[in-house]
Amino acid sequence: MTTDVSTIYLLDVATGGSIEAELRDAIEQAQLDDWQVKWQPALLAVLQDLARNGVPMSQWPQSWHWNWAQKTAQVQGLLAFRGFSVVACGETQGLAQVDLRKAGREPSQVGKPLVYLDYLEVAPWNRPELGPAPRMRGVGSALITAAVALSVDEGFKGRLGLHSLPQADAFYRKIGMTDLGQDSAYQNLSYFEMTVEQARAFLEEE
Question: 61, 144, 151, 188: which could form a disulfide with 156 (CB 3.0–4.6 Å)?
Fold first, then answer.
């Protein structure tokens, strides 16, 4: 299957200018190599620093244990799962994996199909909480946009659902998703949905 590649633009934090990037509708070996060879050492350095400074593990980046090689291997060849990646400056800047088998819970869309965002992670050097200043902004929003666009393409009208790690709750509220509260069946993580109207507003904003 050929990978669809779109040109997008990210914000270069240092210069305030824009950086041309690729949004790819797949997670391929090159992205997994970047995750292993570039993301992991950068994240390890951050974790060692936090440990040295006595920061409790509850305040560490909550996705530190994610293994993208395992995540993609588990769903390889399954049509209900799709991956997305953002590549810029020769490096993978963000990854996302979605599941097309879930249905809405928000009162106006109960039982209607949606794209469920299983995992979304941005490269350590683009995360403001992990260093002095991120290199690029807009990676997470680009991946959300890709998931919403897929929802439209699938006939789901932009509906999107996800469980959020607590450190990301504010981001999902900021982009206009509905917080449906903690889900006791899913590690007590907050469950968010984007309605058809919210998806339209989000795409117009982006």
Answer: 151
In three-state secondary structure terms, 172 is helix
Instruction: Provide the 10 A C-beta neighbour count for residue 7.
Output: 8
Q: Is 96 left (phi over 0), alpha (psi -120 to 50) or beta?
A: beta
> What are 25-78's pLDDT values in tens digits?
999 999 999 999 999 999 999 889 889 989 888 888 888 889 999 999 999 989
Question: What pLDDT does 132 receive?
Answer: 72
CB proximity list for 151: less than 8 A, separation 6 or greater: 114, 115, 157, 158, 159, 160, 199
The CATH number of the domain holding residue 45 is: 3.40.630.30
Instruction: Quote the distance between the C-alpha of residue 103 and its chain's center.
Output: 19
CA–CA dist 116, 134 (Å, integer): 27
- Count, residues in the chain: 206
Total number of domains in the chain: 1
- Residue 133: Cβ-neighbour burial (10 angstroms; 0-12, 13-18, 19+): exposed
pLDDT < 70 stretches in the chain: 1
Tally Cβ neighbours within 10 Å of residue 101. 11
- Predicted TM-score of the model (pTM): 0.94
